[in-house]
Design goal:
Length: 257
C-alpha cells in the first residue's frame, strides 16, 4: 500500500525540483519568487524549481525557503508535502491587507490566531478547532523585531479564498463584525494543517494595503513600492529568526489540544 509518507517523499521533490535530502530542519514559506532569489543570492545557493510549481533553496546552515504560490489550497499542499521529513519549524512570510486604523502600510503583524474563512482547512480539522500558531516560535520572532526597533502588531487574521472582494459591501460588513486586524489568503490554512500534521508553524505578515478604503486598495504600483521598501527587512527577520532559534531559543514542541 502506498502511504502518505511515500507520496510526500515523492511529491515534495516533484513539486520543487529539490532533492529531499537537501531540505533543512527549518523552513521559510513565502508567496514570492523574489524572496527565494534574494535568499539564494545572499547565501550563494542553488534555486531549484524554475520549471516547477514551487521554487526552493537551502543554505549551508540548513535553512530552506520555498515559494509555494498564492492561496489556501497551495498552502495546504506545501504543509502536507513537508510531512515528507517533518521540519522542526515553519515560518510563513506573507503580505496582508490591514483592516484597522491602527495598522499602516509597512507594519508587521504577528497573528495570534486566524478566522477560518477560506474553507480549505475544513478538510483537515473540524471548523470549531481554532487556527493557532506555535507560541514559542512567535515569541522568538517578536524578539527579533524588537532587536531591530521595529513596531509590530498582534491580532487575529481573517483568511479568505476570495481575491477580488473589495467591491462587495456585504463581505466588508462581515469583516467588520468579525473584528480581525488584517486579511490574507493563507494563514489559517498553514496554522490548521500544521497543527494536523504536527509541524510547528508561525507567520510574519507585512501590511501591503488598506483594502477597506478606496484609496488603500492594492495596485501593481503600490504593491511594488511596498516590496521595494520592506521586502528585504521582512526576509532578513525570517532568516534571523529561524537561523538562531535552535541555538538561542527554546525548543519548540507540538502539543495536541
Amino acid at each position: 500500500m502506498v502511504t502518505k509518507q511515500d507520496l510526500t517523499q515523492d511529491w515534495l521533490p516533484r513539486y520543487t525540483g529539490m532533492p529531499l535530502e537537501e531540505f533543512g530542519d527549518y523552513v521559510l514559506l513565502t508567496n514570492f519568487r523574489s524572496y527565494v532569489q534574494k535568499f539564494a543570492k545572499k547565501f550563494g545557493c542553488t534555486v531549484y524549481g524554475a520549471d516547477r510549481p514551487m521554487q526552493a533553496a537551502t543554505n549551508d546552515d540548513g535553512l530552506t525557503i520555498v515559494n509555494f504560490g498564492i492561496g489556501s489550497p497551495n498552502a495546504a499542499t506545501v504543509m502536507d508535502l513537508l510531512t515528507a521529513y517533518h521540519p522542526k519549524a515553519v515560518l510563513f512570510l506573507g503580505k496582508c491587507g490591514g483592516l484597522k486604523r491602527s495598522t499602516e502600510i509597512g507594519n508587521f503583524i504577528l497573528p495570534i490566531g486566524a478566522v477560518r474563512g477560506e474553507g480549505t482547512s475544513d478538510d483537515y480539522l473540524p471548523h470549531m478547532v481554532p487556527a493557532l500558531p506555535s507560541f514559542k516560535l512567535h515569541k522568538f520572532v517578536s524578539e527579533k523585531l524588537v532587536e531591530r526597533n521595529l513596531d509590530y502588531r498582534t491580532g487575529v487574521i481573517y483568511t479568505t479564498n476570495r481575491r477580488v472582494w473589495e467591491h462587495d459591501e456585504e463581505f466588508k460588513l462581515r469583516l467588520r463584525e468579525y473584528t480581525p486586524i488584517a486579511i490574507d489568503m493563507e494563514v489559517a490554512t498553514i496554522f490548521v494543517v500544521g497543527h494536523k500534521n504536527e509541524i510547528a508553524r508561525g507567520a510574519l505578515l507585512l501590511v501591503s494595503d488598506l483594502p477597506m478604503t478606496h484609496e488603500g486598495i492594492k495596485t501593481q504600483e503600490s504593491d511594488a513600492q511596498v516590496s521595494h521598501d520592506w521586502s528585504d527587512v521582512h526576509l532578513e527577520i525570517g532568516i534571523e529568526s529561524l537561523t538562531e532559534i535552535e541555538e538561542k531559543g527554546e525548543k519548540i514542541k507540538h502539543f495536541r489540544y
